[in-house]
């Protein structure tokens, strides 16, 4: 069914997707969050008529515009890359995956780009109220686009609402609402947008803190900080809540990812949550080495968070590869887990049954068709495993997943503390004296980006080797191109995106230095 | 309201939507055309600034339409998405790079400390205008000229063309449509400037340039269309689904679908009228007439490519691998669900129209460039 795939091709294709996605995500979260901060400010301007609020609105809007342009530039490639580099994937699940992408365009992108035009060019052309509505619509449009692409991503992590049609050899949608309201998708959406609000809040606080350190723009900076700190604090509390929801979903739907996030090789009942630790470098299953060089953990917390039961069994990497442990299936019945090898065998049965079905169809052999279909249906659950050969290939990169997860979580809690401190000193009227806090706020800006990117690394590296969980691995998703062609585009993207990033940063720094103008721009 | 429709009717409905999006996209490529004229029409800094700002208020519509066109094609005809994008890798990658460098250029061009310099961003805009139009034209031309690929029994496709799509750029018919789109985009841009910029010098240069660009457009367009009327097309049998060559297929399609022929002829007349009136009279509304004409013409060409039992993405390597609106489409359920979403399109067009009018109620002029608004 799939001819021999060059592993270099898969690796370069993955590298290219990772590169373009991470570059895109450098710009998106600020857009998602700062549009709301701008909308809050403009609302205050329209309510109070205070020109200082307009000045603040326009200043942040300028930074938003610069950031938005490069977000758009890095975004277009992601949509088309599903076709150019993952063409088998595009067919295999396009019937489900294409819909949210189309809806994103029709519903969200047009709204965003149309009202951005009014937001930027309409100050003297439309009424104050209409301008304000446009600004809000930009924020809503940006967040709606996030909804649809994250629904699409959520579906890859936990495919629902579809069935496999052997005649077209692809998955087809059965229930749109199940796809849209899948708990994984909803958690992913809420967790991701709130993380974006946190990042944007930290950006605004950090830039404002820099003004205060320089003794400039005091009113604008303080006002911006109040809005951003409140927005950031509320968002980050919600972020903890949705983070817990996301981890719970991972435990149910992607136990291997959970094991990798925690560096858990051998599962146990009442498993602890690692607070701080260093997984043993080069560790493999059954090599007799300790899991960790050192670790501090909170006993039983992982079992509780993952299964809402402090004594629940959390399978480790080794358990999932070797099988044999008990788990509850979605009907609440106890099952014994299969080993990866057994799953691979079943997957291969499904693939060859599908191929037999196709042959029987050509020969118009009805009996054989029915027989093949039965074998296919019995084993379809493990279809994707059939493309794999080595049981260990279902293990993602544990250290990368582990460190990304822990960096994200640790920084997330640190941000809550920062927001609280900023608010506390603002209301005490002592913020300007707290130089250390202002400096801390400035250097926290890059940390917000690190936390945000780490989140995506956990989500995407942690689910390897799957593009669609259990149904399609990367090796079967990739377009059949010469690895060298993908290598060339990879380096082209690296060059172009890096140049644009440098340009963006230089322009941003310059605009911040210039600061708000009377009237803006 | 879509519940009772058959799969075939839904496929046709979606082909119309794709055609309409494609048609609107070609019209909006006037932004790209204009980007190749910045130095031709703008001789001073202020003139160039007017041109860039005039285009800068519209580029996102084109960009968003392209993205939506891609998304809608993916959702409705995923086999085209997987076959063409994964196959003609270099053509699509070049198109994408051309749009990536465009997206930042407006915003970055006039900002201090912009690393690459204003000239570089203007060059990016030029490259986008040149490659974006020609390559999109070439890609659309393959709907009639075909490509070399095969699709196996699992519907996984394989590109057989040696140069991963670059070979398509060597076909003279593809090139003629590519160049027709390029010059059309420039013509539309000129008409747009005549309507949108309040500057005498730009206006008089535009009028002169209009003739220089209209002539090559007409030549390349006519060459392509006349050739199209005489070639063998890719027909499929509605019952057996077998694909075969049919003489004069596209001419037959026009004759057998008189409504499409009327749309096409009306479109061509409108384009000519928009150009003619702008050359010979003081009319500045040519963009609207030629714009509607462009949309009608391209719409008709797409319909001729996909309707009346025609394979819209033919394979010259293996005829039976050719894609038709029947074998390349999404399932009935997905098309139905997406059809409900498509009901939003008129609403979207309405608010875009409204916003466009609000921003355009006054022509852009030198005075406005000094106001406290967002300037590129």
The averaged pLDDT of chain B comes out at 94
H-E string of chain B:
HHHHHHHHEEHHEEHHHHH
Helix % of chain B is: 55-70%
From the N-terminal CA to the C-terminal CA of chain B, the straight-line distance is 46 Å
Helix-strand category of chain B: mainly alpha
Low-confidence stretches of chain A: none
Task: Give the helices and strands of chain A as they follow along the chain.
Answer: HHHHEEHHHHEEEHEHEEHHHHEEHH
Q: For the report, how would you describe the main beta sheet of chain A?
A: 2 strands, antiparallel
**Which chain pair has the greatest contact?**
A-B, 88 and 76 residues
Tally of separate helices of chain B: 15
What would you call the quaternary organization? heterodimer
Binned strand content of chain B:
under 5%
Question: Which percent range describes the beta-strand content of chain A?
Answer: 5-15%
Radius of gyration of chain A, taken over Cα atoms and rounded to an integer in Å: 25 Å
- Briefly note the structural class of the backbone of chain A: mainly alpha
Polypeptide structure, described:
The complex is a heterodimer of chains A (521) and B (376). Chain A has 16 helices and 10 strands. Chain A has 521 residues and is mostly helical. In chain A, the strands form 5 sheets. A two-stranded antiparallel sheet of chain A has the order 1-2. A two-stranded antiparallel sheet of chain A has the order 3-6. Chain A is globular, with a radius of gyration of 25 Å. Chain B is mostly helical and 376 residues long. Chain B has one domain (7-370). Chain B has helices at residues 7-28, 30-35, 38-41, 45-56, 59-76, 78-87, 89-109, 118-145, 172-196, 200-230, 249-256, 258-280, 286-306, 332-342, 345-360; strands spanning 149-151, 157-159, 233-236, 243-246. Chain B has a two-stranded antiparallel sheet with strand order 1-2. In chain B, a hairpin with a 6-residue loop joins strand 3 (233-236) and strand 4. Chain B starts with 6 loop residues before the first helix and ends in a 16-residue tail after the last helix. The mean pLDDT of chain B is 94. At the A-B interface, helix 2, helix 3, strand 2 and helix 16 of A face helix 5, helix 6, helix 7, strand 2 and helix 14 of B.
């Amino acid at each position: 069914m799939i001819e021999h795939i060059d592993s270099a091709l898969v690796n370069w294709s993955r590298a290219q997707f990772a590169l373009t996605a991470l570059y895109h995500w450098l710009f998106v979260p600020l857009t998602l969050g700062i549009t709301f901060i701008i909308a809050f400010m403009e609302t205050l301007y329209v309510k109070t008529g205070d020109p200082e609020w307009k000045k603040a609105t326009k200043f942040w809007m300028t930074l938003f515009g610069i950031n938005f342009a490069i977000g758009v530039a890095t975004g277009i490639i992601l949509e088309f890359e599903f076709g150019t580099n993952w063409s088998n994937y595009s067919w295999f699940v396009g019937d489900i995956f294409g819909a949210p992408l189309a809806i994103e365009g029709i519903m969200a992108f047009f709204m965003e780009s149309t009202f951005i035009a009014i937001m930027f060019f309409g100050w003297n052309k439309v009424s104050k109220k209409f301008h304000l509505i446009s600004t809000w619509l930009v924020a809503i449009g940006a967040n709606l686009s996030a909804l649809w692409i994250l629904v699409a991503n959520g579906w890859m992590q936990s495919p629902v609402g579809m069935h496999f049609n052997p005649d077209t050899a692809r998955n087809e949608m059965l229930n749109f609402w199940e796809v849209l309201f899948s708990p994984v998708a909803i958690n992913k959406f809420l967790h991701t947008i709130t993380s974006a609000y946190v990042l944007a809040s930290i950006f605004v606080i950090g830039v404002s803190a820099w003004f205060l350190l320089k003794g400039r723009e005091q009113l604008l900076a303080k006002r911006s900080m109040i809005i951003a700190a409140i927005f950031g604090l509320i968002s980050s509390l919600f972020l903890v809540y949705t983070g817990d929801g996301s981890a719970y979903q991972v435990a149910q739907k992607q136990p291997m990812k959970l094991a990798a996030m925690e560096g858990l090789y051998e599962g146990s009942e009442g498993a602890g949550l690692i607070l701080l630790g260093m997984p043993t470098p080069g560790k493999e299953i059954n090599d007799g080495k300790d899991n960790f060089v050192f670790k501090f953990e909170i006993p039983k917390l992982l079992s509780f968070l993952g299964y809402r039961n402090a004594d629940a069994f959390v399978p480790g990497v080794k358990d999932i590869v070797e099988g044999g442990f008990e788990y509850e299936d979605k009907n609440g019945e106890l099952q014994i887990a299969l080993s990866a090898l057994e799953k691979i065998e079943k997957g291969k049965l499904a693939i060859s049954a599908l191929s037999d079905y196709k042959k029987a169809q050509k020969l118009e052999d009805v009996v054989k068709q029915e027989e093949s279909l039965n074998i296919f249906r019995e084993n379809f659950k493990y279809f994707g495993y059939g493309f794999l050969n080595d049981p260990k290939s279902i293990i993602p990169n544990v250290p990368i997943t582990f460190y990304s997860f822990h960096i994200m979580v640790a920084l997330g809690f640190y941000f809550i503390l920062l927001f609280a401190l900023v608010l506390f000193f603002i209301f005490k009227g002592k913020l300007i004296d707290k130089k250390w806090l202002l400096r801390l706020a400035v250097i926290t800006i890059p940390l917000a980006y690190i936390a945000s990117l780490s989140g995506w690394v956990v989500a995407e590296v942690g689910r390897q080797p799957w593009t669609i969980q259990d149904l399609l691995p990367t090796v079967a998703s990739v377009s059949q191109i010469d690895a060298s062609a993908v290598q060339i585009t990879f380096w082209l993207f690296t060059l172009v995106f890096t140049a644009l990033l440098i340009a963006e940063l230089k322009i941003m720094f310059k605009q911040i230095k210039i600061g708000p103008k009377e009237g803006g721009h | 309201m879509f519940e009772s429709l058959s799969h075939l009717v839904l496929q046709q409905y979606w082909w119309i939507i794709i055609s309409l999006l494609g048609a609107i996209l070609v019209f909006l490529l006037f932004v790209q055309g204009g980007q190749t004229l910045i130095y031709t029409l703008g001789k001073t800094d202020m003139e160039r600034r007017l041109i860039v700002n005039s285009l800068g208020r519209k580029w996102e519509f084109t960009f968003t339409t392209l993205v939506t066109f891609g998304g809608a094609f993916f959702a409705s005809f995923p086999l085209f998405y997987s076959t063409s994008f994964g196959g003609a890798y270099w053509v699509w990658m070049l198109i994408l790079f051309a749009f990536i460098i465009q997206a930042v250029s407006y915003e970055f061009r006039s900002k201090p400390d912009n690393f690459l310099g204003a000239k570089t961003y203007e060059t990016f805009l030029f490259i986008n205008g040149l490659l974006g139009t020609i390559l999109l034209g070439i890609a659309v031309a393959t709907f009639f000229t075909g490509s070399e690929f095969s699709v196996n029994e699992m519907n996984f496709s394989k590109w057989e063309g040696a140069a991963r799509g670059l070979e398509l750029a060597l076909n003279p018919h593809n090139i003629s449509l590519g160049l027709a789109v390029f010059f059309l985009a420039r013509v539309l841009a000129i008409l747009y400037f005549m309507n949108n910029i309040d500057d005498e010098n730009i206006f008089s240069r535009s009028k002169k340039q209009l003739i220089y660009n209209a002539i090559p457009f007409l030549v390349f367009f006519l060459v392509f269309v006349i050739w199209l009327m005489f070639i063998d097309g890719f027909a499929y049998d509605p019952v057996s689904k077998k694909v075969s060559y049919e003489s004069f297929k596209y001419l037959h399609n026009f004759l057998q679908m008189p409504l499409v022929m009327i749309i096409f002829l009306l479109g061509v007349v409108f384009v000519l009228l928009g150009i003619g009136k702008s050359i010979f009279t003081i009319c500045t509304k040519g963009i609207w007439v030629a714009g509607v004409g462009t949309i009608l013409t391209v719409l008709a060409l797409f319909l001729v490519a996909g309707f009346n039992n025609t394979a819209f993405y033919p394979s010259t390597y293996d005829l039976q691998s050719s894609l038709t609106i029947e074998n390349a489409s999404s399932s009935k359920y997905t098309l139905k669900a997406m059809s409900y979403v498509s009901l939003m399109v008129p609403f979207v067009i309405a608010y875009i129209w409204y916003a466009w009018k609000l921003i355009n109620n006054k022509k852009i002029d030198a005075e406005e460039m000094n106001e406290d608004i967002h300037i590129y």
